[in-house]
Amino acid sequence: MQRRSGPLSQLRRGHEELVLGLLRRHGPLSRGALGTRSGLSRTTLHDILGALQASGAVVTVAQDGTAPRGRGRPAETLTLNPDAGQAIGIDFARRAVHVAIVNVAHEVVGSASEPHGADLALADRVELAERLVGSLVEGTLRLGALSAVGVGIVGPVADSGADREDLPRLLRKRFGVPVLLDNNTRLAALAESIWGAAAGGQDVLYLRLSHGVGGGLVVGGALHRGAHGLSGEFGHITVDENGARCGCGGTGCLETVASVRAVLDAHRTAGGHAEDVAGLVAALEAGEPAARDVLRSVGTRVGAVLAALCNAVGPGVIVVGGELAETGPALLGPIEAALSAHILPISRHKVSLRRATLGDVGGALGGIALVLHESPLLSHYPAEPEPGEESP
Amino acid sequence: MQRRSGPLSQLRRGHEELVLGLLRRHGPLSRGALGTRSGLSRTTLHDILGALQASGAVVTVAQDGTAPRGRGRPAETLTLNPDAGQAIGIDFARRAVHVAIVNVAHEVVGSASEPHGADLALADRVELAERLVGSLVEGTLRLGALSAVGVGIVGPVADSGADREDLPRLLRKRFGVPVLLDNNTRLAALAESIWGAAAGGQDVLYLRLSHGVGGGLVVGGALHRGAHGLSGEFGHITVDENGARCGCGGTGCLETVASVRAVLDAHRTAGGHAEDVAGLVAALEAGEPAARDVLRSVGTRVGAVLAALCNAVGPGVIVVGGELAETGPALLGPIEAALSAHILPISRHKVSLRRATLGDVGGALGGIALVLHESPLLSHYPAEPEPGEESP
Q: For chain A: N or C, fewer Cβ within 10 A?
């Protein structure tokens, strides 16, 4: 796992984030003010600021906002470097690469996407990602100041395979910084909880109804991974013991009734003719009963599963994304009705059901969030961080 | 909520825990060593140590281990005070009070329980708790050094009512320290993840099958609460749309098939005669088919629910507790079989199913864990803690 590191480096990273956080909130501050507000010793602060300046994340300005002169020694004021890149997010989806960038002030500098064939080689995808990043940077962003790249991939992170091991290596070679990897659907969950439909939500359940059915949990503001990197596999919850065989090897999984293909198949069985989700939306708009009935049936199944998960996990917001969410109230209405019917009555009005807002770029934005959340100040702190020890 | 406090006090508490953690791990340390290892400034360290000494949590010793003499100024060495109480856990169960105590070294000093009638008044229960604590302390523990009391209660914490508001007030009056409250089943989950069947587990799902059916989730080593304090309500997940009416107002909840009463009723319907769980265990031991069949049927239902939750949440360990767990393999076998049948195949061998080990005192131990976990170093840190601001 890329995210493990010794208590020493975690403590150091925590101190760095503390200093960056103060500069983010207050703008330029003197060394003295930073010392008082952070509670760090002069020596520790000196080290931390040295590293942040060397990486280009922090620069000095004179009191009047210009660069300091050589003469005398004016009180040195420090500020974030707006040109410094803090994090890149890349989503290697099945048939497209999406990228997004934030600067040290945590402002999204931009995002870009490009589709490709499903069989494009890994190295070519990485090259495409690099090209997309280049198109956003336009010479102003200092890539040398990047703290990390957060990357979304298809499928469970626990899966192994040549590709999985090659990817971090290839990316590290290209960008020269640490690479953090996670499932792209889970990253979309994290992004929706920060910039999307559940912005500011600490406990969020995200369900994606697309060609596959999956999702992610944000718990206490952090992405929940599970003991072995396996969580958010909502698509493989059994909803019908006598149902269809699922690609995962199970029977009657939610994915066998709520994936795009399952819904289109059911629609055809009911006499409909939609070729894709756009066709289904058109059928709905034309008032076709088959389309409405199929989505009601699927929504009822989905809502019952969401109710079970709400009773267990207690999210404040449920976000439904993926292509099928484009069918709107025809699907979300029945989901909400079944959710309300099966959720613990005292929880009934405490969870809000919303449609995802970030679209395709959610995974890449989630990659950025992953990098920003890896800070021990934002995610779990080690039990007893301590200088002088290299690893737990 | 008792757990909210401003960034300033959280930062301070973080610094205190950092210092206590160093002393816990290393034994006595000089001020200089504490400064170097903590990275805190001299001023900050002075304040933190002053407060810890005033509370009795930390005491000074001379280099040879005895109290410092008056003459000269020997290098002051600091150590944890083994007589200082760090936390009390109290579980106000339906018909009993359980208490447990740890000292500042996080050693469990002892635990005690006493049953009472279901209608005992709240004030009398608090008095009983105080008496039980007194029986453990025996004059050696300094209650004045207690940092907090962690308390388990029956039912969701989100519930309001006179009792809920009275309890923290009564306890604060008795013990003079902050009171942290949570559902006692969730606290048992936390305790099992620290001292019980899942000791050391970071991601644990605890299911209690008793007169009620409930549970708790430990996520990344911390108790998961959910957006509105509603989580772990596994007993109210629908397992049979056409099932019996549940006390919660729903229909066909897991509790309607897997509570002690539901199981005994099903056993009677199948021709059995057990009056209680002990009777059911006796029937099993006598080889009675009705007892075995009923538990197989219940276990199959339970296992399917656990599989759904595993796919969603990804625990490393599932702990099954409560009276019904006393039926042992007759219940756990079918649970495991159904879990294995319904869990995502790649997760199948990654989750371990275990019987709870802490018994009745789990809730009280969980109260202690709650207090120890409230440290920002162990639970979620505020995004940008900062001296000079009183509250977010």
A: N
CA distance B214 to B243: 18
Give the three-state DSSP class for A279. helix
pLDDT tens by residue, A271-281: 999 999 999 99
Chain B, window 207-266: residues with a beta carbon less than 8 angstroms from a chain A beta carbon: 217, 219-222, 224-234, 236-238, 248-250
Min Cα–Cα distance to chain B from A66, Å: 27
CATH code, residues B7-80: 1.10.10.10
Taking the Cβ of residue A1 and every Cβ of chain B, the question of whether any pair is shorter than 8 Å is answered with no
Looking at domain B85-186+364-373, its CATH class is alpha beta
- Token pair, residue B40, equals 């805190």
pLDDT of residue A220: 87
Candidates A225, A313, A346; nearest CB to B156: A346
Q: Where in chain A is the domain with CATH 1.10.10.10?
A: 7-80
Assess B349–A contact: CB distance below 8 Å, yes or no: no
Start and end residues for every CATH 3.30.420.40 domain found in chain B: 85-186+364-373, 199-357
Whether the predicted pLDDT of A129 surpasses 70 = yes
Across the interface, whether the CB atoms of A40 and B39 are under 8 A apart is answered: yes
CATH number of the B199-357 domain: 3.30.420.40
pLDDT tens digit sequence for B71-80:
555 668 998 8
Confidence grade of residue B38 (pLDDT, cut at 50, 70, 90): confident
Is A320 within 8 Å of chain B by CB? no
- In the predicted model, what is the mean pLDDT of residues B123-151? 78
* C-beta atoms of A39 and B35 within 8 A: no
Q: Which range, of A51-60, B39-48, B266-275, averages the lowest pLDDT?
A: A51-60
- What is the DSSP track for B109-152? EEEEEEE--TT--HHHHHHHHHHHHHHHHTTTSBGGG--EEEEE
Q: How many helices (H) and strands (E) does chain A have?
A: 12, 13
Q: Assess contact for A85 and A103: CB atoms under 8 A.
A: yes
What are the structure tokens assigned to A301, written together?
């199944």
Architecture of domain A199-356 in this structure: 2-Layer Sandwich (3.30)
**Averaged pLDDT, A97-121:** 87
In chain A, residues under CATH classification 3.30.420.40 are 85-186+364-373, 199-356
Chain A (55-114) residues lying within 8 Å, Cβ to Cβ, of chain B? none
Residue A107: C-alpha distances to residues A133, A135, A165, A315 (Å): 16, 17, 31, 27
Please give the pLDDT value at position B167: 85
Contact call for A344 and B387, based on CB within 8 A: no
CB contact under 8 A, B308 and A385: no
Q: Give the whole-number percent of chain B exceeding pLDDT 70.
A: 82
